[in-house]
Amino acid sequence: MGAIWAVGELADGAPTKLTLELATLARTMAEAAGHDARTVLIGAGAGAAATEVAGYGPDVLAVDVDAALSGRPVAAVVAPRLVSLIDQHSPEYLLLGASNDGKDIAGMLLGLTDLPVLANGAAVEWGDDGPRVEMSTFGGKLVTRSTFTGPRGMVIVRPASVTAEKAAAPGGVESIEVSVAQELPEVRVTNRLEEAGAAAPIEEARVIVGAGRGIGSEDGLRLIEDLATALGGAVGATRAVVDSGWIGYGQQIGQTGKIVKPSLYVACGISGAIQHKVGVQTAGTIVAINKDPDAPIAEFADLFVVGDLFEILPRLIEAIRARKSGGS
Questions:
Q1: Nearest residue to 209 via CA among 164, 267, 249
Q2: Most Cβ neighbours (<10 Å): which of 2, 117, 156, 249?
Q3: Of 20, 59, 303, 47, the residue nearest 169 (C-alpha)
Q4: 21: part of which helix (H) or strand (E)?
Q5: What pLDDT score was predicted for residue 304?
Q6: Cβ contact 35:13 at 8 Å
């Protein structure tokens, strides 16, 4: 019987949302294929985080690492140990997240193994004899579906491509030790630049307020931030807003940014071009505010408000604040 592994990630000792999505995907694909499924957690605190991950179905292999290695790049710690596990167990397919760390790990695995890779999967399912991976290209204008020509491979899965769902029965947890023949050479950090950003990653937010070119200027972003604060959400933006320098790249949503899946997405001054649509189309509810009645976003928004956002948002913010304070 074959095996499908989800390679999880940890943040401050806890599993990321993407990890739970990958665990769910590994479980559902394994059920369709008649394969075994496992989630692999490697890092400081892996054993403690494994119980939560096991709730999403697959058995978990937890590999705690020495705290002395925690300051090194994640991929340099994870990849050699993952290679050792692959050599021991020979899983057919690995599922990795399309996060910065996930991509780094996949890149190192390419150099350390002979596994082929399908990257940037927006949807993954079990086909006739292996994973079938849907990918968007040319800025989201073309969708391709690809499979592996051989019996093994890695799939890099974009965040929010799957809804994390707990399994009917939790998987087991096995804490193991993995030795590596040689640690990868240590990377020497010569300089570090910290960028101010949101308190939490936008891909984790339940509510996101998106800013588009229609906000006009960096001053217009203040209204977006006020609405996000009133709703208890985060701020996102289109590429045009990021390229203008009004907000950091970490908040960019779309084909060249992040894919998000909030319960509520409020798009302010966003036309809704296909490049942005692919980043938000899985949101629970999409509310769009735009003064152009023919904006493309009207085609996929659940509620489309035609009007000037500079007139609408102050009133909306005031109404939300009044309701939260108990006013009428």
A1: 267
A2: 156
A3: 59
A4: helix 17-33
A5: 97
A6: no
Q: Are 246 and 219 in contact (CB under 8 A)?
A: no
Q: What percent of the chain has pLDDT over 90?
A: 70
Coil, strand or helix at 33: helix
Kindly report, as residue ranges, where domains of CATH 3.40.50.620 are found in the chain.
3-175
10 Å Cβ neighbour count for 72?
15
In the chain, CATH 3.40.50.1220 sits at 202-324
Q: Is the backbone of residue 272 left (phi > 0), alpha (psi -120 to 50) or beta?
A: left
pLDDT in the model for residue 179: 84
SS (H, E, C) 173-230: EEECCCCCCCCCCCCCCCCCCCCCCCCCCHHHCCEEEEECHHHCCCCCHHHHHHHHHH
User: Scanning the structure block, which residue is given the tokens 């340099």?
Assistant: 76
Domain 3-175 in this protein, CATH class: alpha beta
User: Which is nearest to 54 in space by CA: 141, 175, 227, 229?
Assistant: 175
- In CATH, the number for domain 202-324 is 3.40.50.1220
